[in-house]
Design goal:
It is globular, with a radius of gyration of 14 Å. The chain has one domain. The chain starts with a helix and ends with a helix. The chain is built from three helices and no strands. By secondary structure, it is mainly alpha-helical.
Length: 72
């Protein structure tokens, strides 16, 4: 973090990850539903879920528009 705008951006993103709703079951981190907190906490199920994720994170998981990849 280099300035106060970075801090604001990071805090806004983290609010999606650290919230009470995540404890209520399958919580979606993105509108598409590709990124969510798994209900089944068995190790094999979690590994399967992680392996099903795309190799590169989509901007949506961070609450960003898909065009943000263009400027990246």
């Amino acid at each position: 973090m280099t300035d106060n705008k970075d801090v604001r951006t990071i805090l806004a993103i983290l609010k999606a990850y650290f919230c009470p709703n995540i404890m209520l079951g399958k919580y979606n981190f993105s509108a598409s539903g590709n990124y969510y907190s798994p209900d089944d906490l068995e190790l094999d199920s979690i590994r399967t879920y992680i392996e099903s994720l795309p190799p590169e994170d989509e901007p949506e998981v961070f609450g960003l528009h898909f065009n943000s990849n263009i400027t990246f």
